[in-house]
Design goal:
2 copies of one chain form a homodimer. With about 250 residues, chain A is of the alpha+beta class. The first copy, chain A, contains 12 helices and 5 strands. Chain A has a 4-stranded antiparallel beta sheet with strand order 1-2-4-3. In chain A, helix 2 crosses helix 6. Chain A is globular, with a radius of gyration of 20 Å. The N and C termini of chain A lie far apart (about 45 Å). The interface between A and B is large, with 116 and 116 residues. Strand 1 of chain A pairs parallel with strand 5 of chain B, so a sheet runs across the interface.
């Protein structure tokens, strides 16, 4: 449990490669994660080729980890392999629908997170790129993802070349509810977000962006309504293209 | 890494309770998982009350783990707490859309899977209930989940009272692709599914269900097109009800 307690996301990596045997052991062992009906509804695309990283970078808004990490992993919800298996076995697959996308996404994220936990236990550093579902259409073209395959998470992996401060987390009572959901009063919000709002780095961030509150950093700059709505449309159109939505 | 290699899903639990301190430590430590913008877009509802378990059971198709496990955890994608925070801080949240549901779901599943890995490391046994997204509407009513909160995974947790055989997994080449997705030929499928199809328990399962192939067990009995399409409609309608879809 201690290495999880001490973990931090790593965005800077040594030039040192990840030995194929280590990566393969991690990819194998992670497959012990829970999976629906033991179908393993995921695929992972391993990117080591610098040319491929350069192609992927714009789809990830040119975050530097994409080209600097020795390995990039794109975890995909995959009902294609299972469906092809069915077709070769006189069985008619019915997985071109939204529920199947969610089922496969859950499988995929349990696999991805098991990989990350194990990788960190081995001393590797990882970073999730949330951008994967911002422009999944670009990733599909670059990685040649066929119908019933949808990218849901990308992780950069490498040997750490930094040791950043551990970020704050909300107190447990902010996200754990006993028996039923207990809604938040203004006083709850003040108490639960007090630490986060008081941190010097967050106050500095508010100041240099000429904002009044930390929350405005999120709503006005980092995750705006306009961006969210545009990317929702892209995401839904891509689900249709991949056969997961009518 | 060894306890992940040796893990198996546990569906039978001792009557022994889970000490609140242990559960809280696991819930706290799991919050170290990666999270978008450090927003922790999740909530977890802890069910210990037998009456609540009895209410939840039908929503989970009366799987016995729901009433027999000492603790049931319902992990929810949650943009409500963040949105309320914004509203109290002169910030206008724009998270009532599909992308925000996916972002929160990813956060939620990374948290849930970190919890499961840590719980197993402590000797606890867990089982994911895939039924959570089959009838999310029922769970929302029972757990009083408000707008912008959507259940995505339920896990039963307890001290193991069984030691089942470890199930098979596909070989790595079935789900790992180098640089680009490599599609599957009939020969690939034969090779990759040979072990699974040869297992005595799977052959037995095919026989007692009077089917011709193992794949037909999935398409005709366990995960049928009709069920998937009906539950897709429920799921999409529930996302609309919770404010994540127009």
């Amino acid at each position: 449990m201690d290495y999880v307690k001490q973990r931090r996301t790593i965005r800077k990596y040594q030039k040192r490669d990840i030995e194929p045997n280590l990566l393969n052991t991690l990819l194998d062992t992670s497959a012990r994660a829970s999976t629906m009906g033991n179908l393993q509804l995921y695929s992972v695309i391993v990117t080591r080729d610098p040319d491929m990283k350069a192609k992927l970078a714009p789809a990830h808004f040119n975050q530097p980890m994409v080209t600097q990490a020795p390995v990039l992993l794109t975890f995909c919800a995959d009902f294609r392999r299972t469906s092809i298996w069915c077709e070769h076995r006189k069985a008619e697959p019915g997985y071109d629908n939204f529920l199947s996308f969610l089922n496969a996404s859950i499988d995929t994220l349990l696999y991805a997170q098991t990989f990350c936990t194990l990788a960190e236990e081995q001393g590797l550093g990882i970073c999730y790129l949330g951008t994967t579902i911002y422009r999944p259409d670009l990733l599909i073209d670059i990685l040649h993802l066929p119908r019933l395959v949808m990218p849901v998470a990308t992780v950069s992996v490498g040997w750490p070349d930094e040791h950043p401060e551990q970020p704050d987390r909300l107190p447990r009572e902010a996200f754990v509810h006993e028996e039923t959901y207990h809604d938040y009063t203004a006083e709850d919000i003040d108490r639960l977000y007090a630490l986060k709002e008081s941190l010097p780095e967050n106050r500095h961030f508010v100041e240099i962006n000429h904002k009044e509150t930390l929350a405005q950093i999120f709503t006005d700059i980092r995750y705006t309504r306009a961006d969210n709505e545009a990317m929702s449309a892209t995401c839904l159109a891509t689900l249709k293209r991949q056969g997961f939505l009518e």
